[in-house]
Amino acid sequence: MLSGLKKLLMGAAAALALSAPNTVLADDFTLEGQTVTWIVGFSEGGGTDRLTRLLQAKLGEHLPGNPNVIVLNQPGGGSVIASNGFHENAPNDGTMLIMASTSSLLPVILGSDVARYNPNDWVAVTGFARGATMYAISDDLGLGHEDMMADYEALKSANIRFGTETPLSAELLDFVSMEMLGVDARYIFGLASKDAEAAFQRGEMNVNTDNVRSYLKDYGDDPEVNPVWSYGVIDENGDLQRDPDLPNTPTFPEFYEAVRGEEPSGTAYEMQQALMNAKVMLSKAVMLPPGTPDNIRQAYIDAMRNVTSDPEIIAALPREIGSMPLNFGDETQQAMATGTAIAPEVREWAAEFLMERFDTSLN
Amino acid sequence: MYEAAIAALAQLATLQTMLALLAGVIVGLVVGILPGLGGTAGLALLLPIVFGMEPSSALAMMIGLLAVTTTSDTFPSVLMGIPGTSGSQATVLDGFPMTKKGEGTRALSIAFISSLFGGIFGAFVLSFAVVFATPIILQIGFGEQLMLVILALSMVGILTGANIWKGLAACSLGLLLGALGSAPLSGVQRAAFGTEYLLDPLPLVIIGLAMFATPEIVDLLRRQSTISETGRLERTGWAKGFHDWRKNWWLSLRCSMIGSLIGALPGLGGSVVDWIAYGHAVQTTKNRESYGTGDPRGVVAPESANNAKEGGALVPTLLLGIPGSGSMAILLGGLILIGIEPGKDMIDNNMDKVYLMIWSIAVANIVGAGICFFLAPQIARITTIKYTLIAPFMIGLIFFAAFQATRNWGDLIALLLLSVLGIYMKRFGWSRPALLIGFVLSTRVEASVYQTVTLYGITFIERPIVQFLIVLTALSIALAVFFKQKSSEPVTVDGPHSHLRLVPQWAFVIGVIALSLYVFQDALKFNSLTGMYPLVASVSTLVFLAPVVLMMAFKRAPSDFFYDAELKSVPEGGRSAEFYIGMLIVMLLFSGIVGFVLGIATFIALFLYRAAHVLWWKAILGGVGFILFLGIISDQLTLRYPTGLLQNYLSLPWPLQ
Predict the structure, then answer these.
(1) CB-based contacts of B42, cutoff 8 Å, min separation 6
(2) Eight-state DSSP code of residue A284
(3) How confident is the model at residue B199, as a pLDDT?
């Protein structure tokens, strides 16, 4: 009896705790009758656009005052133009937000001139993690996926063909990882991810990289195509864990340790981790403009929590981003700060690597 | 297979699904008519609605939208000379001259029947392709793609205009314009004139508008009182159009095949389909002289191909899960949203959904063409209205269209600058189709040459499909060599081909040389991944210009190297082209202060009052009407317009933002 009452009380307390911020905030902040503009720095139809439009339908329902939410695509420079504009001009009254992605963070990580924004000034609402993996046509490279050492020897002597967009794209994570292992590849540039994937299907490429969810959909039951490693996921303690969707695949650091006999470390690894953080942990991030007041931030965080626990969204999200946990508010802000805080010598290493390997300079 | 097809038909035949299809068709027709918007923008709009819908209805709606945008985009292409989507640029070449001859209804009739035929053909191809096409698509590697690009490029040979060197230089200039902005192989920004706008390459839609729409608007303003020279519309146009199509059904079928094939194969992309079909029509038919002056075959070819392309583009999208075009990418997203996963799995387990799409394409094409036929007589009347009354609205429309490219002020400025290029290319007889083909293919040329050489070296020519394509390309070039296009004007001292008064032509050529040199010196700063392509494009432009410069310097007799439309007939009492260019500059400057919406509305009102001499209150009504139009569109399609300084200080209410 007592325990029953206790349960009930605890439940009520929990319910109160959950609903409290909402009711308090709804008093002083409302978007009633307003239009909220959600900026997407890419064309209609890409992954970032799709996820935004999926959430768009529900966001208005959960924001105070039920505003009309619209998605505005401003493609250009891999979201750099939209991000510059957002950083400089967006009103911080809760009527404008942006869906950032890995490509928005890359120029900041590498210290490129074109990015006039600092995503750490933005106010984080929600981050979407999405697993990433590098996979291969196993027979073509002589991979058995049983013994990492044997696979490593095979990789070193194989004729690896890897299609990617540009040296400065999110695939830099794969380039740096392979460089750390001393594995050489022929990189073929000018291939958007769908073109690289098509070339991989034709067998003209034999290595490809993609998010785990797409890999599983396209090749999950294909015995000839297997992941070499995944990039894992960082848990709440800051430790790297295996990708929950690829439990039998080693993470890159695991693979490295197994074949090199030591844990990865050094400037290259720091760059690798920053890129991993940007690509996996902050695959997409909902951000408010610099200087957004706390009550507005909280209203958005609450709304996004509600949106992402809507049964319809829960059913649809895995199809877009896989099954990694979401992060909110401070957690997202923290991931952003860790991911973009690059020591000068690490950036220097990246600049040298890009120049030496691809004859490409950062600015 | 048959059971699945029948089951799918039963799914489509329910009231709910049919209504969804109809809704999709109507949205598709609207975004098709509006220049600058197409299937991609329309589908993006549907995505949040589709989410949570019953899958059959959602599918019917999305496919209904995609299938008809290339049917209704014919209205602006044929009636106003403004490409409705990038899929109907080639339709302008003969469709608009037909309208100017008073044959607007005939041209529309041909276009709709061709679209209908092409669309259904595309659905037919898809219904077979889903069973066996996978191995064929997987045969098209980098080498094959490179040869497809070269084959497409060889179509330029037949569209060079009266002088081959000027035609090749124009094509080369198109390739050069494609080199501006970020390099596709390295992402490095090159030849950007110090602007952030050119972080990306120039948008195709803006090049299309600048080459065709603005020059035509300016020309019509100077020369004619109505679009239709006779000021009337042929009543019998509908029957004539049908007769025209029937006479050319074989061409329509060939172009439908080309359309669905190019849509399905990787490497070329949808926006070049209409040009290839047009080039094919010119190459393979007799009496070529009439192309470009209002030849019905010039409408049949691109319109059959651009609707057939949709069925083709669905093949890799559904079979491999790899989108065959921009709008297919977003369709793919929509399919995933409603829980359908394209790919092998879908073919094995969801065949009824595949057939539902196929039936939807067919039905949507019939409904869409039907609605267009029904509306056309009213819409076509626009060609008999005094042109000064509609021109300011059309100017508003093309700038609206340009802004949809990247939603950046740079879009408007790029349209203005490139329009100046387009206006003078028209005046001095440089082939604008050649420039456009060069531009459309530029990125593909750059990427596929590099990729093929890096991966295969020269050994790619050992592949059988490559060899077959080499033979086709040789044939295509041979046809261009044997066919000598003659100028429609006499080559005389007092005609436009005169060798006297060359100063304006010198100015134009020097401008193009300066642009080439700028790109050339810029390219030297970069490594080969970034700099090789602009280097080759600028040098080849200069090489093709050399004979033109030599002739201008030394030839002392009329020649087809020389052309200046101003020498043939100076319109009486009309303003110069420069006047209208100045007018557009002032309009943009004013928009920079008060924002695009107020700027263009003021422009429209002033233009109506001063140039069209309407009563002052009617002129203001015109401006206000356009504001309302922009407001409704922005509301329905969730768009925003360029703001000016005013908006920085004042927050204005809808629709003035």
Answers:
(1) B27, B28, B30, B31, B32, B65, B66, B69
(2) E
(3) 82
Low-confidence ranges of chain B (pLDDT < 70): 1, 224, 484-487, 569-573, 657
Residue A284 near residue A51, CB atoms below 8 Å? yes
- CB-CB contact of A333 with A339 (8 Å): no
Which chain B positions have a beta carbon within 8 Å of A137's beta carbon?
none
pLDDT value at A20 more than 60: no
Which of B407, B640, B651 best tests the A interface by mutation, with the highest count of A CBs <10 A? Answer: B407
Query: In this predicted structure, what is the pLDDT of residue A3?
Result: 43
Q: What is the ipTM of this complex?
A: 0.88
What was the pLDDT predicted at A8? 42
How far is B99 from chain A, CA to nearest CA, in Å?
34
- The answer to whether residue B236 neighbours chain A at the CB level (below 8 Å) is no
Q: Could you give the residue ranges of the DSSP H alpha helices within A65-165?
A: 80-89, 102-110, 138-141, 148-157
Would the pLDDT of A22 be above 50?
Answer: no
Question: What's the CATH superfamily of A31-129+282-340?
Answer: Bordetella uptake gene, domain 1 (3.40.190.150)
Strand A35-40, strand A225-230: pairing: unpaired
From chain A, pick out residues whose CB is under 8 angstroms from the CB of B196: 77, 81, 84, 114
Instruction: Encode pLDDT of B104-117 as tens digits.
Output: 999 999 999 999 99
Whether residue A15 is predicted with pLDDT greater than 50 in this model: the reply is no
Question: How confident is the model over A206-213, as a mean pLDDT?
Answer: 93
Cα distance between residue B555 and residue B561, in whole Å: 10
Residues of chain B with C-beta less than 8 angstroms from the C-beta of A167: 186-187, 529
Segment among A24-33, A121-130, A303-312, B563-572 with least mean pLDDT = A24-33
A136 close to A143: Cβ distance less than 8 angstroms: yes
Which residues of chain B make contact with A165, given a CB cutoff of 8 A? 187
From A107, which residue of chain B is nearest by alpha-carbon distance?
A: B187
> Which of B52, B322, B336 lies nearest to residue A197, judging by beta carbons?
B322
Q: Is residue A14's pLDDT more than 50?
A: no
Residue B335's pLDDT is what? 87
Average the pLDDT over each of A73-82, A99-108, A137-146 and give the range with the smallest value: A73-82
Tell me which residue of B269, B142, B342 sits closest to A190, measured CA to CA: B142
Cβ proximity of B206 and B414 under 8 Å: yes
The sign of the dihedral angle between the CA atoms of B442, B447, B448, B453 is positive
Q: Closest residue of B to A221, CA-based?
A: B345
Coil, strand or helix: which one is A99?
strand
Instruction: Return residues 342-401 of B near A (CB < 8 Å).
Output: 343
**Number of Cβ atoms within 10 Å of the Cβ of B633:** 17
In chain B, where the domains are located: 2-548, 577-649
Residue to substitute from B45, B136, B268, B451, interface A, most A β-carbons within 10 A: B451
Residue B155's pLDDT is 87
pLDDT tens track for B462-517:
999 999 999 999 998 888 887 766 667 778 888 888 888 899 999 999 999 999 99
Proportion of chain A above pLDDT 90, given as a percent: 62
Contact list in B for residue A76 (CB cut-off 8 A) is: 197, 199-200, 406, 408
Binary contact (B337, A70; C-beta < 8 A): no
- Residue B45 DSSP symbol: H
Chain A positions in Cβ-Cβ contact with residue B447 (cut-off 8 Å): 190-191
Chain A residue nearest residue B268, CA to CA: A195
Beta bridge partners of A98: A39, A287
Q: Where are the domains of chain A?
A: 31-129+282-340, 132-272
Nearest CA in chain A to B449: A190
Q: Which fold has domain A132-272?
A: D-Maltodextrin-Binding Protein; domain 2 (3.40.190)
